[in-house]
Amino acid sequence: MFPSSPFDPQALARSLLRRRRQGALATLMAKGGAPYCSLVNVASDVDGAPILLISRLAVHTGNILADPRVSLMLDERAAGDPLEGARIMVAGEAHEATGAAAQRPRRRYLNAHPDAEVFAGFPDFGFFRVRIDGVHLVAGFGRIVDLAPSQVLTDLTGCEALLEAEPEIITHMNAEHSGTMKLYAEKLAGAAEGDGSWRCSGCDPDGIDLASGLEAARLDFPERVRDPAALRAILRRLADEARSRS
């Protein structure tokens, strides 16, 4: 039987890119070219591209340095049969960010994985950004779609002011609006209600990323925002909506 519920493959793929914090990384062995798969922690850049923090002592890092082609699988980890949940296979190339270009990937990754701070300063570790060439989405029977990078990545054109202010925005939201972060996660982003606290771990033109321990949630904006003023306005609207559901 074909599924009858609404299906937005672009939105689903974007959500997995933003929400998933672990994935299966496939690389090509530097000697012989055989496939090699490993489990990695993942964060997302402001446009949604995956970011990895990996060590040169690891086999997958040596493989990438010899041949940057990779694939990365991210899945929903739904209860029950794992094959019933949606998953994406991201195909592309992984390249290390160095010098000033590493500042944003570093900040974004450590916002998502604070405990990795201890490893980030080791000389053998580096931040690698996956340049997406394509995404293959499997979301159930009859729901298999190939997507282009432009369909899953956030367009950052004209959003320089928002991107520049992101660190200050995150600091302010977590220091002054921790209760609102919890409301966003539980009332609007589908997170289970509980006693845990939530914090903002990322902000971009399409939404904000929220984290509580190992849990992650994504709050998409009803419209694209380009600067801090527009962000404040839309966050106030969303806060009012979240409170109305309490």
General description of the model:
The longest helix has 17 residues, at 160-176. Helices cover 33% and strands 31% of the residues. The protein is built from eight helices and eleven strands. Strands 1, 2, 3, 4, 5, 6, 7 and 8 form an eight-stranded antiparallel beta sheet that branches. It has a three-stranded antiparallel beta sheet with strand order 9-10-11, with helices on both faces. The mean pLDDT is 94. It is α+β, with helices and mostly antiparallel strands. It has helices spanning 9-19, 59-66, 103-112, 117-120, 149-152, 160-176, 178-188, 228-244, and strands spanning 22-28, 35-41, 43-44, 50-55, 69-75, 87-97, 125-138, 144-147, 199-204, 207-212, 215-220.
How are the secondary structure elements laid out?
Elements (H helix, E strand, L loop, with lengths): L8 H11 L2 E7 L6 E7 L1 E2 L5 E6 L3 H8 L2 E7 L11 E11 L5 H10 L4 H4 L4 E14 L5 E4 L1 H4 L7 H17 L1 H11 L10 E6 L2 E6 L2 E6 L7 H17 L2
Antiparallel strand pairs: 1-2, 1-5, 3-4, 4-7, 5-6, 6-7, 7-8, 9-10, 10-11
Helix pairs in contact: 7-8
The number of strands is 11
Share of β-strand residues: 25-35%
CATH topology of the largest domain: Pnp Oxidase, Chain A
- Which percent bin holds the helix content? 25-40%
Which H/E pattern describes the elements? HEEEEHEEHHEEHHHEEEH
Keywords:
Split barrel-like, 33% helix, 246 residues, 8 helices, globular, eight-stranded antiparallel sheet, alpha+beta, three-stranded antiparallel sheet, 2 domains, Pnp Oxidase, Chain A
